[in-house]
Amino acid sequence: MKRTKMSPEEQAKLIEDARVFLEERVMPLEARFGAEGFAGIEADLESLRGELRERGLWAPQMPKTLGGMELSFLDHARLSRELGKSPLGHYVFGCPAPDAGNMELLLEFGSEAQQKEFLEPLARGDVRSCFSMTEPDRAGSNPAWMETTARLEDGEWVINGRKWFTTSADGAGFAIVMAVTDPDASTYARASMILVSTDAPGFIHDRLIPVMGHTGSGWASHSEIVYDNCRVPEANLLGPRGGGFLLAQSRLGPGRIHHAMRWCGIAERAFDLMCKRAVEREVAPGRPLGTRQAVQHFIAECRAKIDAAILYVEHAARSIDERGASASRTEIACVKFFVADVLSEVLDRAIQVHGALGVTDDTPLAAFYRHERAAHIYDGADEVHKTAVARWILREYGLELNAQSK
Amino acid sequence: MKRTKMSPEEQAKLIEDARVFLEERVMPLEARFGAEGFAGIEADLESLRGELRERGLWAPQMPKTLGGMELSFLDHARLSRELGKSPLGHYVFGCPAPDAGNMELLLEFGSEAQQKEFLEPLARGDVRSCFSMTEPDRAGSNPAWMETTARLEDGEWVINGRKWFTTSADGAGFAIVMAVTDPDASTYARASMILVSTDAPGFIHDRLIPVMGHTGSGWASHSEIVYDNCRVPEANLLGPRGGGFLLAQSRLGPGRIHHAMRWCGIAERAFDLMCKRAVEREVAPGRPLGTRQAVQHFIAECRAKIDAAILYVEHAARSIDERGASASRTEIACVKFFVADVLSEVLDRAIQVHGALGVTDDTPLAAFYRHERAAHIYDGADEVHKTAVARWILREYGLELNAQSK
Amino acid sequence: MKRTKMSPEEQAKLIEDARVFLEERVMPLEARFGAEGFAGIEADLESLRGELRERGLWAPQMPKTLGGMELSFLDHARLSRELGKSPLGHYVFGCPAPDAGNMELLLEFGSEAQQKEFLEPLARGDVRSCFSMTEPDRAGSNPAWMETTARLEDGEWVINGRKWFTTSADGAGFAIVMAVTDPDASTYARASMILVSTDAPGFIHDRLIPVMGHTGSGWASHSEIVYDNCRVPEANLLGPRGGGFLLAQSRLGPGRIHHAMRWCGIAERAFDLMCKRAVEREVAPGRPLGTRQAVQHFIAECRAKIDAAILYVEHAARSIDERGASASRTEIACVKFFVADVLSEVLDRAIQVHGALGVTDDTPLAAFYRHERAAHIYDGADEVHKTAVARWILREYGLELNAQSK
Amino acid sequence: MKRTKMSPEEQAKLIEDARVFLEERVMPLEARFGAEGFAGIEADLESLRGELRERGLWAPQMPKTLGGMELSFLDHARLSRELGKSPLGHYVFGCPAPDAGNMELLLEFGSEAQQKEFLEPLARGDVRSCFSMTEPDRAGSNPAWMETTARLEDGEWVINGRKWFTTSADGAGFAIVMAVTDPDASTYARASMILVSTDAPGFIHDRLIPVMGHTGSGWASHSEIVYDNCRVPEANLLGPRGGGFLLAQSRLGPGRIHHAMRWCGIAERAFDLMCKRAVEREVAPGRPLGTRQAVQHFIAECRAKIDAAILYVEHAARSIDERGASASRTEIACVKFFVADVLSEVLDRAIQVHGALGVTDDTPLAAFYRHERAAHIYDGADEVHKTAVARWILREYGLELNAQSK
Questions:
Q1: Are B224 and B203 members of one domain?
Q2: pLDDT tens across D102-114, in order?
Q3: Which residues of C touch D366 (CB under 8 A)?
Q4: C140 in any annotated domain
Q5: Fewer C-beta neighbours within 10 Å, C or N terminus of chain A?
Q6: Domain holding D351: CATH number?
Q7: Is there a contact between B292 and C293 if contact means CB atoms under 8 Å apart?
Q8: Can you tell me the distance from the alpha carbon of D199 to that of D208, in angstroms, rounded to the nearest whole number?
Q9: Which of A74, A96, A118 is the last residue of a domain?
Q10: Of A294, A405, A406, the CB nearest to D297
Q11: Domain that holds residue D217
Q12: Is the minimum CB–CB distance between B406 and chain C shorter than 8 Å?
């Protein structure tokens, strides 16, 4: 698929449309999202999604044939930054994790039948999906080391294992599961990806994992899943047999940039709230917080870091557009940990400027603070990315380090 | 009251008793505390409190005549570090905020009648209390600027105003309220403290403030309180009329050290969890996380910072014992922001070493992370303390800065 | 002057030419520069300068009519990053501070006669110049507060005062001096800029200021200058009378980006040295430093920060090209402190990876470390820029802060 | 040797005597030390040393029988902090590195004859000494890996090799050299220490290593030494044959605390200069730097960190007094990197508050900044200590890591 870059005017209009819709229609739901969870506002969200789908503001990264906007990576990055300002932004515009990554996998590796059965309803927003890779007893940073197995039996995959932190499994229509299909193959060729309908026999939703104080619900939740002789048709193998690790790399690579785009949006929202607070809150009559140099320096330092983060994300997005994700892996990995750091710092300082209000749920800051601590962890811990970056760089200097070298 | 310092042996025994009780009896309740809130385990806690009260492991900072242990500040610091390892530690040992600070106020400034009516049941643990100072529209860092008023009318104080972030008000027996009684007095002589029974007419519990995702309950909650022509007897004035600011200083000063003591305990707990995780979690077969230098350096840096924090807290505690809180104000303020920084860093790194598990509620780390973000805010934002410290230091160099100078 | 942006191919060739020249001809002089100072290698440098002037690799920011390359700001930024890899790079390519800024001032504000007398020989490299603004007893961050005066007398300016940190005054042909000409004017209209030949009567080179252990010499030195009834023709007034402050702003704005460009070059050099060291230095037989995760993370973090710094500098340069320096002031100020931080961190870590070798003068790192500590100070301390940035941002939120507000 | 702890009064008097002597007699020499080097003021220093020796303010860590003060580690720590305020402090009081460490080695391991020949004149200050361990091609962090050899031949050690960074070799009377005497022994039993007079045949002072811009001279210099069939009597073996590694550990352990003590003194000096500057330097008429919140926060943060550093050093010193250096190794290693960080931060901020003056040699800050960058490197890079600390801690959690594990 050849994605055309938007003209600056088209892009500006898109961003503005998104901004208006978010501020007028989506952000007003945030307080209820916090109080009632996803389940409490699901109906409202579906109605907004329908509206956006009709306006063509839908699934920005999907091809037009699937109802999407077919944006380039860079254009998507810019839109995504806008959407990220609300925790609901990506969901209502049809590009939330983990659906977005799953759509990309299905688009690139799905058979025609798979695309018809799984991708089309997903791209339309008729079902939700989840991605079942991490296991409770195996470090997520080592995807070559996995206990869940799938064996072929009578034309079906029989899957056994326990998966952890399967985001959005609650209420999802299907999961993409990673399982060892070829235990005797070489390290990176053991696992495969398999499409599993959540009503397949043996798919057991074991529990919602309480995260940062909440079990959540629906799209905004994380589950532990047991596969107990779970059976699905042989044709549900996604991509080549033994290709699980490769598909995971392919899914996670750009996925990290998707997150970083979103984080920039969160950081902008927090920055905006911080500035408003600095202007409105008086520490003495006629003396707003913004007169304090400590607050001023928070603002300046955050502005500089957010700018740098945005430029870095766009640079990586442009690189993916022009050179592909694989050639951009150093940039992608660097962006991942660099922007996660910026996000954490900006959120922390925005909360500080809000004082006690900052830790209440009367602003979205506290929820961002809780949920985005995981930015340093999901899709590969920062430390793992740093080690990988160094390995790639030092290779150019003639030092070959294997993946397990410390 | 002359407090005797314990011998090293007495102290070691006390710490050990506390450690065992916490590990065996209190920590097992933590998971339910997270899931059910304070209300869900209140009965269990009361039973533990009764047991400790009988064993004389109760109210370490209170005089023996009130059933306490009469510990010196330094001995209390050491015990408090142990208690801090559980979020329930101080509560079950009879010295939780805000009760602890309120007891100290009543002990120092309460009339005989006030001590009988308010202090004795509080010290026994028969009632809980709250402290009502911060207001929603006034910066907490400027306690001289306040809207709540109290006027004398027919031998009663008539209180009007709105107080915010009144911790533990839900279910409390009484509040200590700060209100302007003398609007025409000089800045720091306008307000007074008044004891208000929560069943006084006009005491309105307006709402539980949702904090970091939860409204909480009972002792573990924060409320917004409205005083709507709330009437209490004239004799409920605590300390001298116009002395509210002074009493607040007196209450908050050592209170900051109480918090810092507790933070050291939290940091030790997090450190212990981090080390255990480093040993147990394998990133590859036979290769635990602790073999990674990044994890090793987290551990070493945290150890050094926790040690320094503990030494600093004990230094300030010793200074309070020997020179009084007022002469120790620079140390107290420095300890406040220094230890808050250490706590945040240690929690952050302990979570990182736990990976996704660190953001779940399967360990206490996520709850500590959420709730102790406020360590940088309550009892005076870090920035306010830093400015005060500089003012005191620069005064010795001949530069007089008034409190509002930036 | 309309500056044409280079094609990517032209630019790549220019960078490559510069790289080769620097590595083959300039870097070999660095060790002698360290040991003998500027005076010791001045003749060699002049010969290199002549060669580059002939090849047209000269004065990248000057118009072609003056022998320069007429590069856009962005193209200059990219070249400058290459030149910055050697402390001698900008000097040999005809664009060192303070000459570069002085040329820009003369180009924009100089009369025809002034350009003939001062700019042309400067642009050719026949003379060097200096800029005399900061005073020993006045904070450099407050250029409206200055003691040096100039009064008109018999068609001559008579200048009196003492200037500090006048970089490159030793051996310079002329100075641009900032002095109060109109003491009764409004704050920002008191001072003017005046061109002063260093052999004018009353121009007294008082001392070379020892900086970081060295007094230096020639271009690589800083002087204290006394103006003792120093007399120059009335026509030496540069720009409008009372326009000194405005000219200073105009000179310093883009000047900060010039520095930041150069810092990126230094950071790249340090990064390269760090990586080489990580590959070459063994901590045990067959185990180079690069196998250590701590070193790997230094490398990854530095790579990310340098990338972000480069993108930010280029973004600001592009903004200056497209919108002018004044409209880009927030970006310029942010870039200044952001890149200074990156530079300090990269240098620090590169030294650390070198161990004891890093603090010796056997690599250029120690000299960079010493001299670029000032990056946080010259052209406005970081704190001053942060305060300014916050002021501009908060103005958009409706808060007007005057320059002196803290 | 049983060292008696001083009474608080004795200690206060000692500190005060040292303070006065330093301020009145030693600090006035600092400017000349900077401009002329050690050689330029050596005569003045010798005269001061003689005076202090006569007053009994000499060699605080040496036994009284050798003319020292026989201070406990803790008392020495407190004195050392005072001495550290001047870069000349330890030298004039008879306890500079590397002499101090060498005296301790000779005191503990020297034979009677060795003590007579080497220790007595060293303790009296009649000669200086150096310590020759690090090699140019071998990582200092791996002292088990060394190329210099010593073989016994005709009752003499014949030493061959090249040593790097031999501090104070210029003008020293003797060196303690570490060389491989038993190449076939187990890793940590190969090397021995040998006393080598600098006029021994084959002791070649190859060059002064330029460090941070200076080659230095005498005590204040670092040399590269070649041992070219250098011959010394067999009796010059210090301690047991093969005991070199053990002696080095024994020398470096407490040596790290000696450095940390001194760093606290430097930090106090920088803090004092920063505060004075904050009071004296006006940024506008009547508005000293200390009115700026950014400066205030620098001051407060530095105060807290210096306090914590001092407490930590004293804690480790007390631990050495009470439990010995070996049992205190975790504390010693933590103190090393913790205090080095504090020192770097305090120096950096003190310079920043001084603006351009801070990078000149008009204050001692720039020299401290240059020379103490090595605090993170000498006596073991910070990273090496962090790894060691983690290893010791994780061992208590049941994880055994060998020294080379990363």
A1: yes
A2: 999 999 999 999 9
A3: 211-213
A4: yes
A5: N
A6: 1.20.140.10
A7: yes
A8: 17
A9: A96
A10: A294
A11: 129-241
A12: yes
